[in-house]
Amino acid sequence: MFFSRLRRHAKWMFVFLALVFAVGFVAFGIGSDQGTGIGDILRDSGGSSSGNLSVGDAQEQLKDNPRSAEAKLDLATALQEDGQTAEAITVLTQYVEQRPKDQDALRELAGLHLGLANARAQDAQVAQLRAGYLTFGSTFSVPLDLGNGATLGPDPIDEAITTQASQEVNEAYAKAQAAYQKAEEAYDKLAAVAPRDANVQLELAQAAQQGGNVDRAIKAYQRFVALAPDDPSAEIVKQQIAQLKASQQPTPSG
Fold this sequence. Notes:
Layout: H1 2-18, H2 20-27, H3 55-64, H4 69-81, H5 85-98, H6 103-135, E1 145-147, E2 150-151, H7 156-193, H8 198-210, H9 214-227, H10 234-247
Antiparallel strand pairs: 1-2
Helix pairs in contact: 1-6, 1-7, 2-8, 3-4, 4-5, 5-6, 6-7, 7-8, 8-9, 9-10
């Protein structure tokens, strides 16, 4: 059962790696005439009342003004610059609850979710490789025949290693998929306030596809093509749509 699950995960990971090229479109802003990608820094928009702050200073500022949206934005930015992505997401989520139509903040939040999801996917790949290394050659396809009808039973140590490796792989992939779903939700909110932004649709499609929501991915890709039919990436996106539709077809039996 472990190796069959491992093969299914490997197939999922192959699909993920095959889609990395499209993430490049997002990162470099293809599909948008604004030149903004998921890694753009919010501070350029001038949405905050102060300059660059340390995490400690930003926390003190928010403590003094707990209802201030600008203070939350300052803290989210400081956390992001300090490499505390998960904490930045939490604070930036609070900010967009107060400023639900701030496109720059929504774009940054979605990008942070997607970046975290990609990191979780890398963790899952490492867990898969580690599982393959730990379990390689540890089990036999058939029990060893010891003669006189006796066979060698399973090694309890091998069984424990295999079980633990399987759990680690499953947990890692579950975290990655959950993170992609969070990214999809964030891009959905951004798409609602920027319905004619083709780049947003491309980013939404990527997050949905990597999170396993194929139907939503197809719709977002189609929306991208409708909004930017002459974009250089439109033909590639059309190929992605065709492949996704084909993947939804039932496998012929027999």
